[in-house]
Amino acid sequence: MGGRQAYIEAVESLRTAAKRPSEDAARAVVDRAVGLLAGRTRCRLTDAHRHLLRMSAEQCRDLADVAAGVISLLDVPEHRSDGAALLVPPYSSPTPGPSPASDPSLAPGSSPAAGLVRRPEAWQPLVQAVLDAMPGQHALLIPVRDHAGRLADLEFAATSPEATAADGRHGRSLIGTRISSHFPQTLVSGRWLVYERVLDTGEPAEIGPFEHAGNRYSVRAYRLGPGLLVTWEQHGHRPVESDRIAATERLGNLGWGEWNLVSGEVRWSEQLYRIYERDPALGPLAREESEALALAEDLPLRMAAAEAFQRGEQVDVTTRVRVNGRIKHLRSVVDAVRDASGGPLRIFGIVQDVTARETSVQRLAEVEHQLAEQRRSLAAEHELASRLQQIILPIPDGAVALPGLKVAVRYLPAEQEGMVGGDWFHAAALRDGSVLLAVGDVAGHGTQAATTMAQLRHSLRALTVTTHDPGVLLGHLNRLTCDLDEETPETAATAIVACFDPARRRLTWAQAGHPPPLLCRGGRTAPLQRPAGPMLGVVEDAEYGCAVLDLQVGDVLLCYTDGLVEHRGRGLDDGLAAVIRTVDEAVAAAPRQPLAELLSRLRRANPDDDTCILAVRPITGETQDLRHFLGATKPRRP
């Protein structure tokens, strides 16, 4: 019952507040979609936003609607290949000094110095991507702890290209190695105590300057997630022009190469070695080695580029290579110094690693394909639900005459695809000459909502055999909805049920969490005071009170679902006020046929929700024109 009570309170608070998204909220939806799209496809925010704009233009849909579709598709936990959800944020703070029982990085039976590091988290590649573009010496170090939870070592998890160890290893070649292998003296120095304190407290620290291997260094340490981000600087070292060029290459993730065809000499820049993940001591790749790395599927592309080069053209081509088991997309811009006959003497070129960009394009295309599949699925469900709704809920073409009443119905579908709802009505004469009227709204959209709507509507018709009391009828529908909720959780609905006695023109009505009917009398419209009654399906054994209204000739009563007054970009009070003005104007403009005029003016659909409108007015055999009754109480409006 606690969950049901919380649910009804939440729904009721939403109904009373009725805060529809404003322009700021729409922008927030777009921003969230951009962030999700960029995060899942590993592309830049600008690329993700540009992709959303393109999809919106191509599909002729509002940008916020496209963004909402992206959010519904991507706003789920991402999973690793082993099935564990990646929910650890990159900047979460670990508990200092984990115990062996709680720390998955410790293996039973391992020695203190041989403890296993934590399993790499999904955010570490993002840190590596950032460090790849940063000048200077930086490294992310993951703590290795002993069985007592003490810091035993630090392992390189991500490094900047300039990060260099004492033995000359640098950049990504350090990843997987430990501080104890390169800087064993650090473990017994005061710096180690500082590292422990930063990991335990999260407070950053600066160390130095201090002497190391004949040079002076300063170190800054920060806690980053469960690890330590360390930056070190060598004093007295001034960058030369070659350092600036190397930094530029790293920022662009590109390197240069040169092949002197006369001498046979081949030269590569340091960044080109990094792109191919090759040890500079081995020298540049031979032509056979380079061709062995290329993917066979790109052979036609490479042949076309070679033919263009032979014609003396500059070549700009992107092909794929397999480096250490991973596919890289490399853009090569190649030109040559040629002799008088056009033959190449020296070939030079730039190679840029555009893997991230190409991968982002592919992932964006995959997301777009998934969204298209989702839209097709929603469209199919929309069509099925619409057909089901039309079969179950046929809408009369015009006003229907019932004992003592004239009734008109209008159904306004939502503008958005897949938003077919569970709005319904019922208007029929009973065997004793009275008239049963009802309007209801099932929570949710789609086939399930349409199915629940059918069950409630047909149950109401069947229950009139046993009673005509609106409060009792709603009590039966509530128990039915509670039973349906056990099969399909979060099933809930609102409704108004009324019974009209034509002999006395008396309307007895009850409601279950539904918006109040509007009564137009004497040309002025106001909402009726609702009797007590909670939503259907949220409180078991709920009781529903009844109210009595004596209708007068000339009155117009409007029952509706919440889509009529709730609308994106305006509050509930504004929506209700707009409907009241419309009723007043319609009755004044067409006193002979107020129902037709009223429904015609309320024709505009709500883009967010379906709407069902039931309008009634009492009639006799002699009074079909309301002008006399309007004029008796209020001058006719121009």
From TrEMBL:
Protein name: Serine/threonine protein phosphatase
Keyword Hydrolase: yes
A Pfam match: SpoIIE
InterPro entries for the chain: ANTAR, Bact_Sigma-Reg, PAS-assoc_C, PAS-like_dom_sf, PPM-type-like_dom_sf, PPM-type_phosphatase-like_dom, WH-like_DNA-bd_sf
Domain PAC, chain residue ranges per copy: 313-366
Region (Disordered): 85-115
GO MF annotation list: phosphatase activity; RNA binding
Span of domain PPM-type phosphatase: 406-617
Alphabetical UniProt keywords: Hydrolase
Organism: Couchioplanes caeruleus subsp. caeruleus
Bias (Pro residues) ranges: 91-101
Domain of life the protein comes from: Bacteria
ANTAR domain location: 10-71
